[in-house]
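User: Hello! My lab partner asked me to get a predicted holo structure for this protein. The small molecule is zinc ion, SMILES included with the sequence. Please write out the structure tokens.
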Amino acid sequence: MPGTEQVEQILAEALAAVNAASSLSDLDAIDVKYLARKGAITSVLKSLKDLPLEERKAVGAAANSARIKLEETISAAKSRFQQAGIISTFDPTLPGIARRIGAIHPITRVIDSMCETFRGMGFTIAKGPDIETDYYNFEALNFPPDHPARDMQDTFYLENGLLLRTHTTPVQVRELEKSKPPVKIITPGRTYRNEAISTRSYCVFHQVDGFLVDEGVTMGDLKGVLVAFCRDFYGEGLKLRFRPSFFPFTEPSAEVDISCFLCGGKGCQLCKYEGWLEILGCGMIDPNVLKNVGYDSEKYTGFAFGIGVERTAMLKYRINDIRLFYENDIRFIRQFK
Ligand SMILES: [Zn+2]
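Assistant: Hello! Below are the structure tokens for the protein in complex with zinc ion.
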């Protein structure tokens, strides 16, 4: 039967072992040998029930205080080892751990850069809702109901009769409604069309639209602004070409090509050996649109243009698959400066 002397002896032996321990695993072994379920001190505590009452009290108290003393000693020794371990592995001369940080998405880069260029020409920036009414997306922009031009824009209709805007031009209507000329605004934003997804088209894309309305605004002003934009955005020495086109909300309408910035117009893979790159659509705002927002279309004229951001980014960074923009693979996004 164990007595208090025996308990003291076990404790002394255990403390000596802790003193002699040279690693965390030595301390774990001591823990197992004395304190675990079959450990020496635990065994003493378990055998108390066989002792006479008086002895049971004395031995029990001794065994309990031995257990506490040993637990504290092991724990203190462990933290000394851990501390020492950290100190011995910390080398202040080594380079720090570089945290992985994100990158600005190429679409955001292109939008920011376009906004910067137009801000330099005095345009302000306006935004509008992604979910639009038929009126703002179509009717106010001179797309009457059943007009075939509506089919050019495969629209996502919502159950409540609203729709996902197919262009950012509705913001033009919203802004004109609440302003007085002169109005000079660009409207960057996200647009949606129910198109088959491929390397060239996606159901979500971005536009930067712009417009200017004032007395005496002409096609010459439109050309001046677009030439200044292209030179600033794509570089000096570019040629611009205006081709007649059709949009319901502009009359006359044009599409603008720039001479290929890669081959200088000689012909290459980027421009499909044509020497020109199509970059935007534009025109003089149709008098019907101005009437719809309550402007005197005899007195005021204006121009509007719309630039596809994905297409611009694909040309600028030579990206051959539009879907890469939406996968958010950081390795892709990091490549652009
Ligand atoms: Zn080319």
